[in-house]
Amino acid sequence: MDGPGKIQVFTGEGKGKTTAAVGLAVRAIGRGFKVFMVQFLKAPNTSGEQIALKSLAPMITIKPMGRRGFIFERGCEPMDVEMAKQALAEARSAMLSGEFDIIILDEVNVAENLGLIDIQDVLGLMNSKPDNVELVLTGRYAHPEIINRADVVLEMKKIKHHFDKGVRARNGIEY
Questions:
Q1: Span 137-146, pLDDT tens digits
Q2: Could you tell me if 16 and 156 are in contact, meaning their C-beta atoms sit under 8 angstroms apart?
Q3: What is the pTM of this model?
Q4: For residue 149, is pLDDT > 90?
Q5: Domain containing 43 — which CATH number?
Q6: Are 104 and 134 in contact (CB under 8 A)?
Q7: How many domains is the chain partitioned into structurally?
């Protein structure tokens, strides 16, 4: 990596936050970097990026650590809190292991916003980032303290989307 690693946040109401993180991961792998991606709120084998990124192992490790179904439909349950805390612990362990150049916390902002993990725990992880690691946090509702601590913040803004007309998410396009 050229220079010290930065902290990047991809947030906002529009599509493309996870996709931007995946694009960064693919670019980094192309340059010989190793990537660890933990997915908050996403169950194993439920999204196209999980399936595709597995083919890039061992340069990327992807760990979906959520349950099936949409948390916004079923509500938060104690198991969701436990899984989110485990996901944050996995991210911290990978970040401090010295094995990875890039750590991606996919949907961590949503997990924090829902109260599944504490903002102080996320900030603590951000503050303990080694200089040689790039840290990426994705998801809507990025907390103002996360935004303040980050080096790069990109907001995806929805202008128009077919979801607004009732079209459901499509396999291979939205997930």
A1: 999 999 999 9
A2: yes
A3: 0.92
A4: yes
A5: 3.40.50.300
A6: no
A7: 1
